[in-house]
Backbone:
């Protein structure tokens, strides 16, 4: 059986079912944004890794090495953020074709350093190897979180509201522009969307603020798209979800680029992925206050975009005209085409 | 300038010079077998990663997925062992071509689990991505060590003796056989050499015994070959080294395979690499006792193969006939051909 037949998530499920944790210090293993380990009484260690492959995750002449360095780190920082954690140290594995220049590697590290330094993270190690055909960057980040502040995918309960930081779809809109350079778009919009795609900002401050509020019940970062990532929360928490399309925060830039590309902006916001915003849940009585507090503390807007329902109600998208349609987990799957 | 012009070690040096550690908890960053971090008063955290790329580190039809899984973990466990540490948790990043079978991935994980379980290590996370053309396995392992037991590359002093666990060259001899299946070699020799190459045993127990003896001054694992790895110790410790060729432990299997391949067994033992034995140094007064103690505790033979000399005496190989020749760091460099 080929991996393309069961897909990335099928394969991850299969692997995690085959893994037993023999040591007592594994709080959460495979299946959340980061592994959670008990290394100290008062702190959990968090660890996560993520690969970027040329021609799969990025096109070499569409992203500068500096941007690639920043993004490689950002997507891992985002995973630590989504657990409510503080990122601490990073390692980098590089696969390099022989025709790579030293200057390219320098710029890649410059980007990685700039991205990590602003969050107080040090790059402390790594490995490098010859990789013919294509460049590969695999970054690994560890962080820590106080046990009582840890947020998992599995904590959502029916009745909880669903919240999201920032705006969704900008990254997908940036990708649309990147793949169609002939498209004529207002410069400010293009800049915003391209930046969201090429150098996303991991919501580390926001993740900490959400965790410290103690008002949230579950959290994940939006790497694969709202539809896919709420499915992860829904499956881990054994609940259903209802997303209110009209409440999804979508920027003017994304609306404009969608218009130019003859696409539905909602499609970019729900299925686009790579926004690296935080998606989290909170009981209804505290949700608005939580949104306001995070916004006040970090300057990042927070929107309430739906509600958690019992599992038997499934996952639904409530459209602006009141129609309710199934919310398919149509985000990115690496092994399906 | 191409990376092939400065080579892997030149590139690592360049990168590490550009990295500043802004946080006070980095004891050792880039440049040893694993990074060393102060996360607790009584324990250092160790972290290391290593890539295996199809067609570069392994040939897909020459190693089973089970063996590849074991080896991927073993080479990282070996890096923790070489710091005197106890490995604890592992993460796995996989790059998979779309035509990979689920059964292949299952067997790969089976190997990784078998290799980690016997050292009490849990696989707690990872990532996977589509990688066209070739398979890639990047494993990341963290471990811990008591601050006073930590062994670095930088602790060797003139006068220290140089010691090595096990026998050198078996892995290179196994590779010779693997690449020339027509070679007719006694089965027991072939088995020993192939196993050394395909499923090396990380010297975790031995590393702990050496560290706990408190008699050693520096340590590294033999991944690139004795000539290359003693150069790493020599550079980090600012000392020279003299290796006594006649004292290097070489198995009958390696001698026989070298004979069949018209090679010098010494060449396999010194430049072959991938033995994953431990290379360490100790003051002369305690070296023999240390060798005997480690051998007694673990069953693994330990040999004294040379001595540390002042830096200005360089690195030399003393041949069996008394001639002294320069010991070139002719081990594996990923970016030079």
Residues:
């Amino acid at each position: 059986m080929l991996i393309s037949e069961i897909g990335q998530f099928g394969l991850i499920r299969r692997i995690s079912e085959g893994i037993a944790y023999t040591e007592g210090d594994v709080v959460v293993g495979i299946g959340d944004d980061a592994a959670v380990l008990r290394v100290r009484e008062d702190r959990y260690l968090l660890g996560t890794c993520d690969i970027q492959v040329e021609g799969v995750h990025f096109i070499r002449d569409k992203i500068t090495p500096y941007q690639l360095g920043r993004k490689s780190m950002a997507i891992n920082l985002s995973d630590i953020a989504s657990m409510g954690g503080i990122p601490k140290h990073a390692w980098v594995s590089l696969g390099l074709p022989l025709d790579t220049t030293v200057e390219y590697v320098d710029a890649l590290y410059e980007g990685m350093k700039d991205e990590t330094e602003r969050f107080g993270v040090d790059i402390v190690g790594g490995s490098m190897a010859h990789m013919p055909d294509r460049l590969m960057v695999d970054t690994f980040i560890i962080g820590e979180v106080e046990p009582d502040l840890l947020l998992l995918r599995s904590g959502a309960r029916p009745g909880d509201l669903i919240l999201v930081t920032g705006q969704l779809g900008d990254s997908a809109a940036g990708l649309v522009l990147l793949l169609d350079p002939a498209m004529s778009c207002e410069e400010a919009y293009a800049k915003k969307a391209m930046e969201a795609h090429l150098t996303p900002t991991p919501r580390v401050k926001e993740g900490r603020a959400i965790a410290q509020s103690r008002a949230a019940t579950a959290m994940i970062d939006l790497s694969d798209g709202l539809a896919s990532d709420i499915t992860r929360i829904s499956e881990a928490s054994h609940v259903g979800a209802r997303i209110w399309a009209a409440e999804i925060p979508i920027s003017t830039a994304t609306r404009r680029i969608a218009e130019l590309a003859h696409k539905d902006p909602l499609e970019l916001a729900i299925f686009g992925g790579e926004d690296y915003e935080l998606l989290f849940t909170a009981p209804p009585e505290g949700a608005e206050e939580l949104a306001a507090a995070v916004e006040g503390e970090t300057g990042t807007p927070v929107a309430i975009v739906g509600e958690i329902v019992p599992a038997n109600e499934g996952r639904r998208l409530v459209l602006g005209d009141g129609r309710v349609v199934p919310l398919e987990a149509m985000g990115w799957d690496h092994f399906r085409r």
Q: What stands out?
A: Chain B has ten helices and 13 strands. The longest helix of chain B spans residues 65-81. The mean pLDDT of chain B is 94.
